[in-house]
Queue: 2 jobs
Job 1
Amino acid sequence: MARSLRLTDPARIPANSPGRGIPDVIGRPGPSPFHRLNPLTKATLATTTAVAAVVLGGLVGPSILVGAAVIVPAAMAGVLRRLLVMAAILALPIALSAFLINLFFFPGGETVLLRIGPVAATAEGLGFAMEILARILAISGAITLFYLTTRPADLVVDLERRGVSPRAAFVINASVQTVPAMVERAGQITAAQRARGLDTEGSIWRRVRGIVPIVGPVILGSIAEVEERTMALEARGFSRPGRRTLLWSPGDSSREAVLRWAMVLALAALIVGRMSGAWQ
Amino acid sequence: MTLRLSGVGYRYAGATRPSLLDIDLALPNGSVVGLVGASEAGKTTLCLVASGLAPRVVGGQVRGTISLDDEDVDAWPMHRLSQRIGIGFQNPATQLSQVASTVFEEVAFGPMNLGVDRSDVVDGTWAALGSLGIEDLAGRDPARLSGGQQQLVAMAGLLAMHPEHLVLDEPTAQLDPAGTRLVGAAISQLAADGVSILVTEQKTDLLAAIASSVVVLAEGRIALSGPTDEVLADPRLADLGVAEPAAVRLRRAATSAGVDTARLEAALRD
Amino acid sequence: MVVRWIIAIAAFLVVAFIGIVGFGNFATGIDEEVFYDIEGADSFAVILAVALIVGFVAYAAVEYAQTRTFASISRQFDTRTIVLMPVAIAINIVLGAAVANALKIPIYLDSIGTILVGVLAGPIPGALTGFLSNMLWTYVVPPPFNSGAAAAFAIVAAVIGLVAGLVGRAAWLRPRPNRPMGQLLTGAVVTIGVIALMAYLSFLGYEAIIGESGITVANDNVAFVILGWLALALVVLTVIGLLYMLFARRDLTASYVVIAGLGTGIVAALISAPISANLFGGVTGAGTDFLVAAFRQAGTDIGAATLGQGLISDPIDKITTFFVVYLIVSAMATRMKARFPQGERLFDAPATDAADDGEWRGASA
């Protein structure tokens, strides 16, 4: 852009312009030191915690992980209450089904604790259900902590800075914005259909029948917009090859890099130990 | 700096008939050319061809030449052409990049894609916001703006790439009267700044106010063209599927009712 | 082109073979009690995933060696595909969450977007759409759409997208309307034959599971009876839909849709069962849990229960999904479809244009 056009003439920027910087809402730092960790560090913590919970298995390992890698950092970041509420909402359907199914339908369970009609809760089933519960809590807790302390856009900018292609970054970023937009659209259509007397509650068959007139327009409408969006992006230089300019990126330090590698190596050691049978 | 179409024709992929034929059009500096016509007359197609999206993105086949300052742009890739010619569409929401959480980032999206230096991106973005008078929106979420404001943000996103020419396909079609006034004022201001603008518009009242000349398309060819006053007062306009501006209809009604419009207008002017 | 595919498939097979022979933990063998081996199934899933990645890398490497570019891969990622992918991902997540949380029916409907991208753009964008959908579903999208379980199944979603891409590339979803009755009957017989064969094989499987486990299932076992009726009802509905499409619209593509869905569903079930069994005790909080419970009550091991659930749910789910995708693709304007990388395989090429006078030219850039 060697050409200088009148629109860039600094004299045209009015006096009340916020100046040469970017608006301070862009990339505003988080409220706590944990929030301000690099997004990749927090993502690594969430992933290694979740995988470690599965690799460890049992009841004790995942429980310790929940305490050390979820509860303590969440308390430090001041999001403990929200984390507990959200993790409960997130994990409740899985946890409840897993708990009940394993409690009552565990095959080979002999120590009967409780009998309800044709099914019986057994001690073996209870033990197994507790293990599954601990695992699910560790996984959903780790992910919720990441979600509560990281803006998706920050992670994407950071990944792009590290060399992820701008096109991949676009797909991730646009997906995150499209989900709520589509929900809003579905909500509008649902309200309209309800007003016309369509049922979205009741028996399975009625629910299935109710969902079709909502889903159809949402899907077809979104797909019809693809063409316009494609042209709009092309008109804005989207297909230019090579890296693009970033306005800002989250901070990172060599200490954090060491921390990330330590987490990954610890997980690898855990997996190797588990697979080689050196430790069960 | 002139965008010129000479003998341009265009045919969509798989179509048996061309959608555009023998289009000759020039967009000199600072001009606002209005483009009108019945539906399916080829207005949108002409916008796509003039901006270079057809055939580069849309496919299909083109003939004739499109030139910028007498340089044939046939071999230019879209990202190079988009720095000289910007194109805007009627739906404000689909023009947003969907990756920006603030208006500032939305407007900066184009220059960022072009890999412009960061400080130039920032300056250019403020300048583009300033030229449309929407700097106070910079920190807002673009998805939560009114349609008129979104359309201005989309235009600012094009301006941030410093185009010399803007092609706008029905920019006010989905806007309320307030939004239409915002966009109309912005177009006049941009033309005064030296940008040339080709604008498709159903609202001939708006064109009467902002366009320096008007082109009427019918079945893919130019049916009428000339200075705005002449074309919009042309009696053939209605037959070509174009609504006349209210002023023209009023004048005709007054004349047929026996009012001397020339004297009336002179009296009103005083 | 052919060389690349041969080398990629060879790499896949070699890695899979080495993995199974060298690293797979199959020492415990098939457990006589439960007809299933969790450790073995686990190794199998990991080895397949690694082999798939190695196969892809081999393909890319050969292409780079031949042409110094990754054109055949990057061509699948034009701007249009890049714009479609977020829409597809949102469709997956929103619909998947709605079905799992609200409808509680034993199918998922969380791969319509994945299969759509695969069919329109190609195997690699399809795989990426599936992978990203499940990753974002867990890590990035806000509650109540968030799902803690999805990321673990990202590899399954990727394979679904890959298979859908190959189905699209093979032009299976091209409409074949107004075929003569003979062809339609052949199509119907072949399709129903395949479904019947599948049903018979799974019946044999259940016999083996239940027979081997030494537990007799009483006829009055409520859950099992419901399960049986439900599975039967879904299969019957699918067959009716297929026959309607075959004979009302005389569209032979119905048969292709069913076979593509069946194949994709079986592959998905095989890969997802061990993940589901190991990570979540076979339970993911969705409507499919009901099936798992039924199997477990019949006395099967977790692995067998999740596999049994998958083999019922997945083929029906994927047939339905392919059906929906076929409807969507049919509803799209030809001009719109044609611009996607694999779009021209979805309709019959129109009659050639009027004679070219040489003046007309396409995009040169």
Job 2
Amino acid sequence: MSNQRVSRRQFLNYTLTGVGGFMAAGMLMPMVRFAIDPVLTAEAGGDFISTGTSIDELSDVPTRVDFSYEQVDAWYTSEVTNTAWVYLDESQNVIALNPTCKHLGCTVSWEGRESDPNRFFCPCHNGLYEKSGKNVPGTPPTAPLDMYETRVSDDGILQLGQVVPNTIAK
Amino acid sequence: MLNKIYDWVDERLDITPMWRDIADHEVPEHVNPAHHFSAFVYCFGGLTFFVTVIQILSGMFLTMYYVPDIENAWRSVYYLQNEVAFGVIVRGMHHWGASLVIVMMFLHTLRVFFTGAYKKPRELNWVVGVLIFFVMLGLGFTGYLLPWDMKALFATKVGIEIAAATPLIGEQIRVLLAGDPNILGAQTLTRFFAIHVFFLPGALLGLMAAHFIMIRKQGISGPL
């Protein structure tokens, strides 16, 4: 038995605070969980998407390949078109770069500015990348362009998968 | 810890008098259910306020997913109810709470009526209370359309027809409510949404403030 006596007033204060807190939590918990649901929803791994482009059409020069897929955005389903810049490296591996600039997310294009041949160019803040996706020092981007996972189907059609960090830029 | 934070703020801003003005006042014996259990009838006003707070909170959270557009309204409601965690509960709170507010408000009105608490000098508070009642009915009417299902659509058709039966200015009221003389559609939904989440809640907060300031100023009416 403790020597510290709990006064009637203290006891009532604790009890009322506890009960009130419990009720408030019961009210707020569903609403907060409801609001933060998108943060807690696990991201589903995507499938490979066929681009309709044959690998025979590819060369060592990056070419623009647009591909469409059905995007489910909560209650809204739509056809979305994405772009990849695709080329074959020295050992004939398919390289597909994501054109989203690593500076602030604008879209880059190959030789997008005439004064910069053999570079990816971002028009927003003049960012430049080499063919491998490596960012050119002294321009705004701080990281190389991301890549798509690539796969070639049995009949030679290029398929693209998830966007992954660049592994070829040195 | 909490006491220290309170003291720190109080030392600078002297918040205790404000806090006492709001929360620290005597509850007369005749309205205290601990003395006479039948005094629970004096709780209905507070319960109305409590349910109103739940309505405001759950409504705020629902607008995180709801879209007031005829293409997407129903689908967004379906999505938030079936795909989002606790969607059923949050929408359920708003759905059942809407009816509960009306019930509590009605019981509160009966108590005020039968205890004669509306009499001089509290007539103005009765008038403000009746205005709150109308605002609440308006919230119920406009909220009913928002799920954009068949029940919502036809209930609103009927409601607008009733409003349009007003003498002389019926047609103007119809267009004002529906946004179009003939169609109950896209413009009706956005109007009802705006009225439901901005205009009427704004009016409600003002009226409730007046209601509460008056009751604190005049005090609760005496025993029967």
